[in-house]
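Narrative of accomplishments. A recurring question from our advisory board has been how the design workflow behaves on a single, concrete structure rather than in aggregate. To address it, we present the structure tokens for one chain from the evaluation set, followed by the sequence designed for it. No filtering or post-editing was applied between the two.
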């Protein structure tokens, strides 16, 4: 799939990806899970580059570590966060030079201190960049996000800064982790799994979902273009009549 075949006027503003299949890829190639996650980091770079080159993607959200992933072995968890720090060390300056901003969503206080410090540095370093934002979902769960938003709203009501009558969808959305970005237009899930796995339940309300059997470490620019081409082939009705993008 070539980028030239895409309609440049219908590029999704917000793409989210459930990056699945690192462990399966490792088993297929007879290597460790750590090697599978390392291979997956190459796909992260490829997708960020592709979205930046398209020029119309405002936000790319990557599901990196869920609230449920703490159930994995301590060794694998430790490996994942070491890789996060390694990726930041290797890629941050290039990301910064491309005018890409890094943000993170999730319950970040629970992250290991080294990973949290590196992530905070990456966010500070790129805070003024404006061409595109990469949102990294870490210790993230959509139900947790909705609970956290509800708790903040309850505190506002208790303090008298908000009344129950003022709460509607627009108000509620302002208390999500990153309210400044548009809802997700296109959700991509790799490895063929047909689940959304507690990911951005609020923001995915009208997203187009694209599932590919490609394992995440094998996912490259052409796979992203295929997903966008499929997105462009669909009619988005938003619960009613077809609406042009």
């Amino acid at each position: 799939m070539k980028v030239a075949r895409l309609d440049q006027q219908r590029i999704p503003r917000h793409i989210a990806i459930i990056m699945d299949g690192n462990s399966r890829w490792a088993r297929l190639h007879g290597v460790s899970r750590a090697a599978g996650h390392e291979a997956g980091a190459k796909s992260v770079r490829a997708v960020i580059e592709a979205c930046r080159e398209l020029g119309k993607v405002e936000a790319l959200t990557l599901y990196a570590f869920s609230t449920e992933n703490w159930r994995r072995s301590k060794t694998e968890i430790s490996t994942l966060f070491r890789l996060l720090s390694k990726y930041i060390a290797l890629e941050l300056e290039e990301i910064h030079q491309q005018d890409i901003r890094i943000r993170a969503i999730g319950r970040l206080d629970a992250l290991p201190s080294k990973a949290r410090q590196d992530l905070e540095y990456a966010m500070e370093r790129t805070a003024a960049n404006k061409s595109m934002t990469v949102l990294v979902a870490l210790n993230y769960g959509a139900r947790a996000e909705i609970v956290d938003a509800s708790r903040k709203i309850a505190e506002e009501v208790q303090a008298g800064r908000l009344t129950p009558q003022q709460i509607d969808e627009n108000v509620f959305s302002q208390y999500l982790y990153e309210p400044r970005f548009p809802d997700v237009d296109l959700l991509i899930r790799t490895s063929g799994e047909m689940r959304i796995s507690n990911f951005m339940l609020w923001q995915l309300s009208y997203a187009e979902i694209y599932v590919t059997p490609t394992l995440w470490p094998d996912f490259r620019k052409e796979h992203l273009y295929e997903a966008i081409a499929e997105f462009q082939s669909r009619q988005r009705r938003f619960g009613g009549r077809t609406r042009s993008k």
